[in-house]
Amino acid sequence: MIRVKVCGIARADAFDAVVEAGADWIGFVFFPPSPRAVTPAQAAALSARHAGGPRRVGLFVDPTDDAIAVALAALPLDVLQLYVPSARAAEVRARFGVAVWRAVGVGARAELPDAAGAVDGFVIEPKPPAGATRPGGNAVALDWSLTAGWRAPLPWLLAGGLTPGNVGAAIRASGAAAVDVSSGVERAKGEKDPALIRAFVAAARAASAAGGEEAAE
Predict the structure, then answer these.
(1) Which of 22, 28, 46, 68 is the most buried (most CB within 10 A)?
(2) Strand 156-159 to strand 99-106: parallel, antiparallel, or no bridges (unpaired)?
(3) Smallest Cα–Cα separation from 143: which of 168, 124, 163, 164?
């Protein structure tokens, strides 16, 4: 079954929708420039709405150890999604003992990771477009053919420009077994739409992957 992460959750109605839709992971953005950013206290309050449910993922961009420690003190995080170089990702994993996914922006097949490194998984997405102020896909879709047939060294998630309308095609073309959505389920920048969340999870679940591996726990 295709696994689903919904990222950038900042409101109670969106959190509840992710839980009710049965997504596998729910993501909190700890990067203040993002319109989806939350503080550790805000994330903890949201997380407390439901015991169990989706595994909690914290997204960080070039974080200090102190920033990660503050977030982990506020709420348990199952995964740290990091925008950092490979060596720094390994340091964080060793320091905190929490699973780490490293986000990797690619524009060509040769840029796909060919070694695991000391992390637990990858988030594969497009390189930021010119002029972008934030990392990540910035609502731009990856060329899905880049990952077709890729022998990934670790479990991975496909991200970037996914919506309820295109996620099925993306899964089939890319071979991804797990997908990550943020802006594609918003009615306005940073404002998640519960109906779109439910539609996205349903569409992803209905798709069948042409290969790939499950994302890491």
Answers:
(1) 28
(2) unpaired
(3) 124
Report yes or no: 24 and 41 within 8 Å, Cβ to Cβ.
no
DSSP string of 113-145, one letter each residue = --S--SSSEEEEEEPPPTT-SSSS-TTPPP-GG
Provide the β-strand partners of residue 179: 4, 158
Distance of CA 59 to the CA centre of its chain: 8
Kind plus residue range of the DSSP H or E element containing 41: helix 40-47
Read off the pTM: 0.92
Determine contact, residues 73/55, Cβ cutoff 8 Å. no
Longest dimension (CA), the chain: 43
* Chain segment 132-174, per-residue pLDDT in tens: 556 655 567 899 999 999 999 999 999 999 999 999 999 999 9
Task: Specify the DSSP element, H or E, that contains 25.
Answer: strand 25-29
The residues facing 156 across adjacent strands are: 122
Please tell me what DSSP assigns to residue 130. Answer: T
Task: Collect all residues with Cβ–Cβ distance below 8 Å to 56 and sequence separation of at least 6.
Answer: 25, 26, 28, 43, 47, 75, 76, 77, 78, 79
pLDDT, tens digit (0-9, with 9 covering 90-100), for 174-216: 999 999 999 999 999 999 999 999 999 999 999 964 444 445 5
Architecture of domain 3-206: Alpha-Beta Barrel (3.20)
Cα 155 to the center of its chain, rounded Å = 13
- Cβ neighbours, 10 Å, residue 66: 8
